[in-house]
Fold this protein.
Amino acid sequence: EDRKREDRVEERRLARVDKEQRMLRNLGGVAPHLIDRGQERLVPSPWFKRWRYRLWEVLPKNSPCSWDNPSLRSFCGGLWREAVEYTTRTADKTVKEALSFFYNEEAQQWRFIPSADLLLIMGDGLVTVTVLGIFLAPSYVEPTAPQSMNTLVNMAIPTF
């Protein structure tokens, strides 16, 4: 009877691991070199760190920054162009179609750039977006990733 129970527990564990691996594949997976003692480690990319540091350099340190600030608009435009260029090179048809909603073919320009979203993603823990403008943290804060891919999966997939 104990053996049957152990088999059932092992079967459930394997089913859970299989489910987690399928979810990881759906979210892009994790490179094997980022696995540490059986747990995946998420590490911010050099690209992310570079843009995050540039955000720190662009925003004023002691006052809110308005959306019509030329350096902020240039930063958001450059970040968007680079992200779109990478996405159009590597993404599938569905993602490219989604990007087309943002682009005006006739005018050959972007209809909308989700600047607030870009700032909140790149500046997590570093910037605050309010009605008064964009505020910068008093000191530079290193980006922190979720502890593991499992934590990220649990954040991304709602549970009811």
User: Anything to note?
Assistant: Helices lie at 2-26, 46-58, 70-90, 93-100, 115-122, 149-156. The longest strand covers residues 127-130.
